[in-house]
Hints:
By secondary structure, the protein is α/β, with parallel strands linked by helices. 46% of the residues lie in helices and 19% in strands.
Amino acid sequence: MSESRPVEGNFTPDGARFAIVVARWNGGITESLLRGAQRGLQRHQVPDADVQVYRVPGAFELPLAARKLAETGRFDAIIALGAVIRGGTPHFEYVCAETTRGIGEVALTTGIPVAFGLLTTDDEAQARARSGDDSGNKGEEAALTALEMISLFRQL
């Protein structure tokens, strides 16, 4: 019996193009996520010319913008970045659930990887901890996910 090896992606971009969609709401946090995503792509030799940044008002708008970008056929992956911080109303749950569902739906219906960089935190301190300049920046992690998914898809 032959031994089967798993097929998995790596972080070699080889001419891949990326769209990064960033929510402006909670801008201090989302700008840090954006810097993390850009840092992750640059660390893996993705030229700045192969990355286009788009801004939307808030997290709820991320899925629609991601879908429109996927439909252009110009991008190999989309990175969706936003931050929703819990408040005193059910708004948090609605926005988080629908944004999460929408981002997943875009990936499934278009076949374009959409990396999930949406922070859903109880407070601003948690959001800052997940978007800082040290390790653990979820924007950078989303960029690495996008790189790996592109590589995997090219092997399928």
